[in-house]
Fold these 3 entries.
Entry 1:
Amino acid sequence: MIRYATIFACCLLALTGLAQAQNSTGTTTLSVAVGPEAALTVTTGTTTLATASTTFGAPFTGNTSLLYFIRTTKTGGTGTLTLKITSDFAGTGGPSVTTPPSTGDALTYACTVSTPGTACTGSQTASTSAATPLGTWGAAANSIKAGNAASVAWSLTDDPVYATGTYTATATFTIAST
Amino acid sequence: MKRANLGGSKSWLCLLTLAMIPASGSTGTGSQSLTATINPVGSLTVPASANLTTVGTTFHPFTGSLTVSYKARTTPVGGGSITVNVSSDFSPSGGPSAAGGALAYTCSAATLGTACSGSQTASTTVQTPVLTLPASACTGGGGACSSQNPNSVNLSFTLTDSPAYATGTYSARLTFTISAT
C-alpha cells in the first residue's frame, strides 16, 4: 500500500512540474531628447508667372505653395522662413532680379503663413544677394505633423523692353528654428 | 522424553548470534532514490536604459536599439515566449506617446527561438511579441541545446518625430516578460 502511494506521489510531482509555467520580467527605460527642428516642402514644383494683360497693364503673377514643419524651444526659441533667388532669370534681354533693365522693374512677393507662423508684411523685393523674409515664429511653436501652409504670391514687372521668350529663375526657401 | 531442553537451546542461539558479529570494523550497502524535477524555466536581463536619437533636423524618426539576454528551458511539449509592454508611457506630457502608436520596433538575431517578424507597435495595454521559444529549447551546452549562454535577441526601436512634440527629454519604461512551459 505504501509502495503504491509513493508511486502516485512521484507521478503527481512530475506532472505538476510539467504543467508549471515559469515567468520572469525585466525593465528598461527608453529616453529621448526632443530638440528644435525645422523642415519644409515646396508643394508647387514649378511656378509659372503669367499675365492676363496684353497691354502691359498687369504684372506677371503666380503663386508658390509650401508646407513648413517646425518645433522651437520652449523658452527663447525662434524661427524664420526666408527665400532667395539663387538663379536669376536666364537669357539675355529678359527680366533680371540682379540687374533690372529699367528702373522700377522688380520681382516682388507677398507672404501668407498660417499659424503658428507670422507672415512678412507688405511687399518684399526678392534678391539674389540676400535672403528676404517670408515668415517668423517664436518660442514653443509647433506645426502640426502634416505641416502648416505658407505661400508666396509673386509679381514680376511686365516691362516692354523684355524680349519675347521664356525665362526661368530659381527661388530657394530656407527654414530655421532654435 | 522428547521434551526439549529449552534452556540449552537458548544458550546455543545466543552463541550463534555472537559468532556472526565481526571481530572488528564493519561494511554495508544501502540505496537511496534521488529524484530531481526539472521545471521549465525562463529568465532575462535587459539594459537599465536605452537612448533614442535622431540624425539631422528634418523630423526623421528617433531610433535606438537594445539587446535582451535570456536563458530558457522548455519541456518537450511546451514552449515559451518573450513579450514587451510599455508599462509607463513617455513622460512628461507634451511629447511622444506610445499609447498613440508612436513607438515601434523590430526584432532580429535571436540565438534561440524565433524573433518577431515585421514591425511591431509597442503597446501600453497588451503584451507584444519579441520572441517565440520552441518545445525542448534550452540555453547553453551545445548539442540539443543552443551553444550560446545566455541567448540574446536584438530590438531596434523607432519613435515618430512629430513637430507637435514640445522640446524636452521624455522617458518611458518597458517591461519584458519571458515565459516557459
Entry 2:
Amino acid sequence: MAEVEPGPEAAESAESEVESDGAAHGALDGATEPETKTGDETTGSRAVLIVERLEVDFGTKEGVVHAVRGIDFELQTGEVLGIVGESGSGKSVTALATMGLLPKSAVVRGSIKFKERELVGLKEKHLTGVRGTGVSMIFQDPMTSLNPVYTIGWQIAEAILAHQEVSKEDAWKRSVELLRKVGIPFPEERVNNYPHEFSGGMRQRAVIAIAMANDPEVILADEPTTALDVTVQAQVLDSLKTALSETGAALLLITHDLGVIAGLADQVLVMYAGRPVEVGTVEDIFYRPSMPYTIGLLGSLPRLDAEGRERLRQIPGAPPSILGDRVGCPFAPRCPLAQDVCRETEPDLQVVESVTSAPGQHQAACHFAVEVGRGDHGKIFSDGVVDNVIA
Amino acid sequence: MADTQQENFVIQTPAAVAQTEAGAHTLADARAGVELSAADAYGMAGESKSQARLVLSRFFHQRLAIVGLCTFAALGIASVLVGHFWQFSYTDITNNLNSPPSATNPFGTNAIGNDMFAQVMAGVEKDIQIALTVAVMATLIGVTIGAIAGYYRGWIDSALMRFVDLVLVIPVLAILIVLAHRLTKQSDNWLGLAIIIGILSWTYVARLVRADFLSLRERDFVEASRALGASNKRIIVKHMLPNAVGPIIVNATLTVALSIILETTLSYLGLGVQPPGVSLGLLVNQGQDSATTEWWLFVFPVMFLIVLILSIFLIGDGLREAFDPKKSRVRA
C-alpha cells in the first residue's frame, strides 16, 4: 500500500489542534532543548555541527550549477540527522562540503561550524586536523573505499597512527578491538585479511571501524547501505548504531532509503533541487508530511503492513536541472497540486504543525503546506500512472 | 553448527549424509588440532595472501618467466665468479694470440692475447652494473616527478610535464655522445655513463606513474583517507604508491634491458666504456671486423648480449602478466 495515513496521534492532533498545541508548549516548558526520539536530552545536548545558509555552486562550461541553494541545520551530540532526497538533490555535496572535500571548482558560501570553528574556507592544513578526529566520513561503496593492497588491520591502524601518538602495537590492538565492536567475527584473524577477502557487508563494517577509530564527534555517512543488499543492510546499520553509542558521535545520515531513516534518524531533512523542502522529526515526516514531494517519496515505498494489493505511487517526471536559475517552486512541474503561485514564487520553509511536542521543529517549503499536512495526501499521486509533466 | 546440519540432512540421500559426516569429521579434526584457531575450525580464516605473494605466485607459474629469471641470475652470478676465480683476468695479456676456442681459452683469445671468456664475462658484469644503476635512478626520478604531477595536477602538473617533454625532445643519442665522451674519457668510468643514461631515461616512468596517479587519485579509498585526515604526503607515499607498484616494477625491468641496449649502442660507437674497460658493446665493436675470420671474437659477445637482453624481457613480460590478473591465464 502506498498510501500514507497519518498516525493516530497525528489524526488526533489534527482534530484538536488547540489542545495539542497547548500540551506541546506545556511539555517544552521543562526542557531547554527540543525533544528528540532517543531522548538524548538528559546528556544536555549541544550543537557540534551548525550549518547556516550553505550554498555550493559549480562553474561548468554550460553555466553555473547550483548544487546546494541554502541549507541550514544543527546537529546535536548523539543525534542522528537524516538527509533524504533523489540523486542530484545536493545531499552528497553537502556532506563533502562539510569535510572540505569538494573539488576546487566548487564555490562554497555560507557557514559550516564544527564546535565554534568555521570550516568553510579553512586551509587544507588545518582541515586535516579536523578530519578523522572531529568529523569522519563513511563512503557509499565499501568495494572501493578500502585500499586493496593493505590488510584491514593496517588500514584501521593507519587511521589511528595518522592522528595519535601511539605505538604500532597499540594501534594494532585497537584495530582488533574496533573490528570486534562493529561485529566482525574472529577479529584477531580477520584483522590480517585483505579487503578482497571480506564480503560487502564486512567491508562496510570495517569502514565504520575506520571512521570511529579516532573517536570523532560527527560521523558523516554518505549512503552507507546503498551498495549493500537488504539483509546485510540491517547488520551494517547495527554496526553503525554501535559506533554511535561507543563514540557518542552525532551522525549525519545521507540516504535515499526512507527505511534506513525510519530506523535510525531522530531528525529528517528532505532535500529537493539543492534545498531543504521539509524538516522535522522522523515522526513528523512519516506521520504528517506537509510537502507533496515528501508524500511522493513515502508513497513510492512498498509497505509490509499494506492490506491487499495496491500499486506503488510514483512521482511523475524527473528532478529539475540544477543548471542556471529558475523561477518558482522546483517541484511545481511534477506536483499534482501546483497552482500558478507555485510556478511564480519559490516558497520558503514555514512552520507547520508537528506530530511531536516540539513546535517550530516541523517546517515545510510549500505554499500549501498547511493544507497538505492536513489533507488526505495519500491520494495526491495517482496509481502507477506516468504523467508526462516534465517542464 | 554441525548439529543443525545433521538435523537438516536426516531425510537426505546417503551421499549427502556421508558428506555431512565428512564435514563433521573435518570439523572435529580442526577442533582437535591445537594449533588451529577458532576461525579455522569454521573455515573462516583461510590463508591471507598479500598482493606481493599473489604476484610472486603468479610469476612463478610462468615457465618463460622462470627461464628468464634463472638465465639472468646465472649470468649475473657467473660474471662475478669468473671475475674472481677464473684463471685469466680480462686485463691479462698472454702470448696466445688470436687462438680459436680451446680447453684453456673456451672462447678463444683476441689479437693482443686477452682471454675472451674473461672479457665477455667482465662485459656482462659491467652491463648489468650499468643497467641496474640506470634502472634505479630512472625509477626514482620518474616516480617522484610522475607522482607529484599526477597527484597535484594543475600548474604543478603542467610545469613538470613540460619539463618531461623538454627532456624527451632532447635527442638522447646526441646528448649522450657529447656528455659521454667527456665523462668517460677516463677508462672504466661506468658510473658516469650510468648516471648520464639514468638522467635521460626517466621520462617514460614519469608519464606512466602520472597516468596511474591521475586515475588513482579519483578512487574512493584515496578520498576516504583524505576524509580521515591523512596528509598529502601520507596519501601519496602510503596509499597511492603501493597501488602503482606493478607498472613501476615492470617498467623498471624493461629499463634495465633498454639501458643495456643504449650502453651497447654507445660503446659500439666508441663513446661508452673505454678500453681497457670492457663492455659487451665494446667487444662487439672490436670483434666486428674479424667476424668472418676470427668468428669467436664476434659471436660470443653478441650471443651473450642477446641472451642477457632476452632474459630481462622475459622477466618483464612475466611480471607484467603477474601484476595484471585480468590478462593472466595463470591462476595463483
Entry 3:
Amino acid sequence: MLKLSGPIEPLTPPKDGAGALFTITTDPSLPVAIRNRFALLADGPVDRTGYAAQLVRSTGPGVWPRDSRLYRLPEHFAYLASGDIVFLDSARGFLHTLFRKHSPHNSILLTEQCNHYCLMCSQPPKTPDDSHLLRRAFDLVSLIPSDTVRIGFTGGEPTLYGQGLIDLVRHMKAQLPHTSLDILTNGRRFKDREFAKTFAEVAHHDCLLGIPIYSDDPVRHDYVVQAEGAFDETVQGILNLKRFGQKVEIRVVLHKQTIDRLVKTCEFLARNLLFVDHVALMGLEITGFTRANLELVWIDPYDYKDVLSEAVAVLNSYRMNASVYNHQLCVVNRDVERNYRRSISDWKNEYLESCAPCARKNECGGFFSSSKMYKHSQHITPFPG
Amino acid sequence: MKAEITFDAAVFSLDAVKAACYRLLDRFSPEIELDGGKVVCHLSFDESVSPAAAELLTSNLRKEVLDQDLRLRLKVETEPVRNLILAHAFSKTGLIADE
Amino acid sequence: MSEFHSIDSYRPRSSQYQLLPFRFTELDDKRFVATNLAGEFLVLPKEVVPQVIRHELPTNDPWYVELRARHFLTDDSTSIARDLLAIKLRTRYERLAEFTSLHIFVVTLRCEHSCQYCQVSRQSDNKREFDMSWDDAERALDLALRSPSPAMKIEFQGGEPLLNGDLIRQIVLEAERRRGPKQLEFVIATNLALINSEFLAFCSAHDIHISTSLDGPRDLHNRNRPRPGHDSYERTIQGIKAVRTALGRNRVSALMTTTEASLGRVKEIIDEYLAQEFSGIFLRPISPYGFAIRTKSYLKYNTDRWVDFYKEGLEYIIDLNRQGLPFREFYASTILTKMLTSRDPGYVDLTSPAGIGIGAVVYNYNGYVYASDESRMLAEMGDEKFRLGHVQEHSYEDIFLSPKLLEPLQDSFAYSSPMCHDCAFEPFCGSDPVLHWALYKDYVGRKPESEFCRRNMAIFRYLIGRMESDLFVRKLFLGWANRC
C-alpha cells in the first residue's frame, strides 16, 4: 500500500515560509527560468541551483547545492516519479503526494469536515477548519497537466464549502478543459434549488456527482450515515441535480447494515431514480470507522453473493448502468461478471499468497491493503487453470 | 332463494353497504333499506345457487362491507394529500393552464 | 470520536403516521394487492390492511417499514414520498400530451378470405366502391399530421390492404414528403396471400413493417380463415419467409385470434409460433364485433374458459424460458410494464383514459373517421355511435373535440367508474367504452358483470401471484416489463 504522506529529513537548515506545491522532476537541466516550480528528485545531491528543493534518496557523495533546500526521502516515497506533484511543508518537514502522473485516478481531498458520520467511513471526519485544503486545491489544479484524464474531489463533504466548491469547479473547467471530474458528496446541499442551479450554471463539460444511498428505508439510510433527515435531503438533492441536467451516480456500500434490503434498495432506485447515470455497488474497505464498527458491519461477501446477483439483475433489467466494485472475483457469482469492475484504486490493491496460482488473477481487482491486513472473505479460492 | 343481512347504521355507512352490494351484483340482486338504526339488505339469489353457496355469498358480503368501510375511511383521510400530489404532478406539464 | 447511535435514534419519534393514498383488492383468500398513487403494487397479508388503516400498525413492524419505503404511508422520519409520488405519476401520464400516435388507414374493405371472426364485413372482389380514394387519403393524412405526437405509426388495414397496394404506396410517399421532424413508422396488417417481390422491395425501401395473422397450426389456421384454395396457412408461412428474406428477421410480426377451435390447443399454437421463429405471441381474446356477433361465435366460450386457455399458454411459455428458450407473451408484457415501471407501453386497448381518439384513430375506406378500430367494426354492424366525422367535411378540431369522442372518454374514465374507482388494479387496466357499448349499451357497463373486468382481473391476479411465488418468474417478468 502506498503511503502518500510522511516526514522527510531536512538536510539543510529549514527556512521559514508556508508550504508550497511543486512538480517533481528528475531532469537536472531544466531551463533556469522555471526551476523554482520544481523539486528535483535524485539519488544524491546535485550541483544545480534554482530548484525549489532537492529530494534525494541518499546523502552519498555529491556537491550540496547552496540555494535549494535539501531533503532525504524515506524509502516509502520510492514510487515518486517525474510529473508527480507534492506539497512540501518545509516548516514541519512533511511531504504530501497530491498527484501522481501514472495513476489512472487522482483524488484531491478538499476537507475532512463532514456532516455525516457513516458507520463505515474510510475518511473519519475531523472538525477543525481545514479550508487551507481548498486553497491548496486551487493551486494544485493550476499545476496538474492538461492531458490528465480524470480527477476526483473527495472529503469529508466537499459541498460544505458552498460557493467555494462551485468556484473550484469553475476553475477546473478553465484550467483543465479536457479532464473529467468526479465529486463524492452526500448531495444534501443540493436540496437548495438555487445552489443546484448555480452549480449547474458552471456547465462543466464532464462532471459526475457520486452520491451514496444506503437503503430504500429512510430510517436505515439515516442510521448508516448517522444523520437524521439525511435520506430526504439526499434524494431532494439528486432530484434537483437532475432537474438541472447534472450527471449523478448512486453509490451503495455493501455491508451487514445494508445488505438485507439491497435488492429492495435497487428496486427503489429503479422505480424512483431511474434517470441516474450510474449505480455503483461497492465492497467494504476495512479502514477508518469500519474497524471500530467491525462487528456491526462486517459480513463475508461470499455469504451475500446471491443477494448481490439478484440486486444486479434488477438494475440490469431496468437498463440502469451498474457496476460492482471492490470485490474479489472468487466471491461473486458468474452472473455479475458483466457488471464487475476490476477496481481498487492502484495505490491500494494487493493479493493474498493463496492467490498466486489463480488463473484469473489479472481479471480480479484484488484486495484493499487494509482488507488483506485486517479482514477479508474466508472463501478466497484461486480459479483453476 | 332469499336472504337478509343487517348492518348497524352507526357502525357502517350506507355508502359502504351499497358499494359492497355493487361488487357482488353478479351473484345476487340486493334491495337495501334503512330500518331504524339498521341497514337491511334483502338478497335475491339465482335459482341455481345452493343454500350452501348462498351462505358463503352472504358471509362474503359481510367481509366486503368491512373492506368498503375501510376504503371509505382511507379515501376520506387521504383525499387532501392526494389532491396535493396530483397538483404537484401536473403543475409543470402544461396540462393545467398558466404554466 | 463521538459515539455512534443505534438505529432506534433514527426511528420516528412518534408512533403516529400519515396514510398516503392507496387502494387494495383481494389477491386470494389470504392476501390483498395494494397499489399506491403511482400504481406500484405490494402484496400484503389481509390482516395488515385494517391494522394500517386504523393506525394500529407499530412502527417497528416489518410491514410498516415496507409500507413506508414503498410510499403507502409516511411519518416524521421522512417526507420525500409526496415528491416522488408526484414525479412517478407525471411520468405515467406523460404520453397523454403527445396525443394520437396510431393512425389507421382502412385502404379497402375487399378481402379474399372469409374468416369466421372477421370484424368487418367482407365484400366480394369486384366492388371497387369499397376502396379508399386518393382524395380521402390525402385529407386523412392532413388530419394525421396535425397530431402533436413526435413519433407516429401509420397502419394500413382492410379487408386485405394489399388489394389496394397502389394507394398504400401513394400514402407512404406523400407522408414521407410531408412529415417534417416527425418520426414515422409504417405497418401493413395483411394476410400475406398476395404479397409479391415487387411490393416487398417497396416495403424494404420505406422501412415498412408487416403484421400478419397466424392462428396456429395448419388445420386450425385454415379452419378459422377460409379462402378459395384453402391454403391460407401455406400462403402465410410463405409470406413470412419472403418478408424476412426481403426486409429482415424482425420486420414481420403475427397476431393470433382465439376461437372455439383454439381452446385446448394453446401449446400447439405456441409451438407453431416457435417453429416460425417469432420472438413471442399475443394471446388474444375474441372480440364481439362484426362476424363474431352475427355468427354468435363469441358466445361459444366464456371468459373463464379463455382465462384457462391463457394461463395454460403462459405457463407453457414460462417453462420454455426455463429451458433457455426466450419467448414472450405480449399481453402480459404490456401489463407488466404498467405493474413494474412508470412507463406507458402505448397499448391503446388497455388504458385509462381510453385510447379512443387520443391514442388511435381510424380513417375508414369511405372517408369517415372513427375513434378506434373497434368503433368502425361496430359501424359495420349498424351502430355509428363512435363515428367522429368525415375527412372531407370536418376539421381536426371538429373531430377531436367532438362530443362523440369526449363524452365516452369522460364517462368511461376508470378512476371515476364505480368499482374501478376502488380497484387496486386500476392503474394496470383500461376503460373500453366501445366494447362496453357493444355488449351492454353503456360506456362503462356494470363491472361485476363485465367480461372485460372479469378477464383482466383474473390475469392481474395470476401475474402477481406467480411473481410472488416464483423468483424465476419474477425475474422473467421483470425482463418482459422493460422490453416493451
